[in-house]
Design goal:
Blueprint lengths: L20 H21 L23 H13 L6 E4 L2 E5 L5 E5 L13 E8 L4 E7 L4 E7 L5 E4 L4 E2 L5 E6 L7 E8 L2 E9 L5 E9 L2 E10 L2 E12 L2 E6 H4 L1
Antiparallel strand pairs: 1-2, 2-3, 4-5, 5-6, 6-7, 8-9, 9-10, 10-11, 12-13, 13-14, 14-15
Length: 252
């Protein structure tokens, strides 16, 4: 229950591993200064619109996905006190119209219910007007996007990655107990619209790399080739006929 997601980046080219003791100390010092800045200084100046460092750094010693989400929430609530508050079993989101949107956990008596849900605030993405909420199930998790004008809810499988023009988001997920694939959503005045979805039925896993431009997404497909696990570069490109997923080498 509440198992932390497996990250398949150890095979990705360019990802450094095996820091020496000096690098570890320097990294911890930088992280401490960033947390100090974000927790005590920036909130007094009005707070940043987005968190200035990787939130997963807060969970590097946590192996439970719900506890990780709660650690992130505790940190993030200091950044957005005007917009998000935690009151016991529920989150209260202040919308643009002044109304309060309530997101409430399943009753504690249903904690062991496979249908139970527990919510943790992750971020307020002001640039596109959405609150991002982590949703923990008995097995697996998803993310809830809540429109800051209407309060409409949109469920996506993983943390959203915004296109450079902020016209779309891609959500890439892979896991045993959750959606295994890719979704692309388009931002509209009425809310998010699911533009394209791909669910892989086998054991392969996709991970997000980067938006190359507004119509091209770089991914990795974690798979087994000749009894070895590798990450194969993939390209997801918007063509006239729609989104097309191909191997990076074959797209050149």
């Amino acid at each position: 229950m509440y198992t932390k997601h497996i990250v398949y980046d150890q095979f990705i080219p360019g990802v450094e591993r095996g820091y020496g003791d000096n690098m570890k100390r320097e990294r911890k010092t930088v992280l401490f200064l960033v947390i100090l800045l974000g927790t005590f200084i920036l909130p007094k100046l009005g707070g940043p619109s987005q968190t200035p460092f990787d939130l997963e750094e807060l969970c590097k010693n946590i192996d439970n996905s719900y506890k990780c989400a709660q650690a992130i929430e505790r940190f993030q609530l200091k950044h957005y006190p005007k917009y998000v508050t935690r009151k016991g079993n529920r989150l209260e989101l202040t919308l643009k119209n002044g109304k309060i949107k309530i997101i409430e956990n399943s009753p504690e008596t249903d904690y062991d219910d496979v249908e139970g849900k527990h919510y943790s605030f992750r971020e307020y993405i002001q640039s596109v007007g959405y609150f991002l909420i982590h949703v923990q199930y008995w097995e697996g998790s998803k993310f809830l996007m809540v429109h800051d004008k209407t309060g409409k809810e949109f469920l996506i499988p993983e943390v959203p990655e915004l296109s450079p023009d902020k016209d779309r988001l891609v959500s890439v997920s892979g896991g045993t107990y959750q959606f295994n694939g890719i979704q692309i959503w388009k931002f509209t005045s009425g809310g998010l619209v699911l533009e394209w979805t791909y669910e892989h039925k086998e054991y392969d896993r996709f991970t997000f790399n980067a938006w190359a431009d507004n119509k091209t997404i770089k991914l990795y497909k974690f798979t087994e080739v000749k009894n070895q696990f590798v990450n194969i570069p993939q390209i997801l490109k918007l063509e006239p006929a729609g989104w097309q997923l191909v191997n990076e080498e074959s797209s050149k």
